[in-house]
Amino acid sequence: MSRAEEFEDLRPLLFAIAYRLLGSVSEAEDAVQETWLRYEATTTVPTSTKAFLSAVVTRISIDVLRSARSRREQYVGQWFPEPLVDDPYADPVRSAELADSVSMAALLLLERLSPLERAVFVLREVFGFSFPEVAEAVGRSEAACRQLAVRARRHMDEGRPRFAADRRDREELAARFFDALREGDVDGLRELLAADVQMVGDSGGKAPQWGAGIFGAEKVARVLTATLPWLFEIGGVMEPHALNGQPGAIFRYRDGKVVSTLTLDVLGGKVQAIRAVINPDKLGHLGPVADAWAVNREAMRARRSAPGA
């Protein structure tokens, strides 16, 4: 098998590692491409191509993550990962870990870790690498990596909900949520929301959103039914779709361009959190992106001109 063929076989794994470290589809793709360029240029014949390439993409991602931290500290408003439609890497033995680690909630927890803690946690806990492999990838001793793993696991466990929702129950509740949203049913939405539900958007200051967030079932239900139906009124569409392994939807303008995405955190038979990505810089991998300001202005004009408005 040629180097190029070996690399292509491992590309899904390399992207999966990089995305979990960076929370960015575009940056993960760049890290994978840089990994290929370094692999192509080296004269080294690795004992394990998988271990070698995983180490390279991890080190590249750590460097990117360190430089990105200062940018994220200056980010306007709430920062969310770029929405991921499909995880290209599948491993039946670790399917639960893979699904959990790509959720918006888990990626936001990973943001709390140092770059090294994050890398060790992702390689060890998510992908099941041995400690010698992890140590080689991050350039630290096995003993240091074990300590990093313990700290990372503790931080992750402290932030996770105690019980996960059953997948079927979660999908059924999400279907009811999106039906009520499409119909503008305030009461129907309210009964699906946790009393302390939070709805937060990531616009990066580049698209309209709901300030610092909307909190509480009554307010969230009313804001949703007062805004999104007008997107549908001007020809916009909502495409329910799993995003980051969670129930979600992609919203498009009538010309098919992407306006935003939305994901739901479901726990205890209720929607606990609603996260919207509206920043156009984070939506380009889903297709051409709409001018969210223009779409919002048109929707508001339609709302003001409606009978009884």
From TrEMBL:
Q: How does it assemble?
A: Interacts transiently with the RNA polymerase catalytic core formed by RpoA, RpoB, RpoC and RpoZ (2 alpha, 1 beta, 1 beta' and 1 omega subunit) to form the RNA polymerase holoenzyme that can initiate transcription.
Ranges for domain RNA polymerase sigma factor 70 region 4 type: 105-156
UniProt keyword terms in alphabetical order: Sigma factor, Transcription, Transcription regulation
Highest taxon, organism lineage = Bacteria
Q: Which family does it belong to?
A: Belongs to the sigma-70 factor family. ECF subfamily.
Q: Where is the RNA polymerase sigma-70 region domain?
A: 7-70
Protein's name according to its UniProt entry: RNA polymerase sigma-70 factor
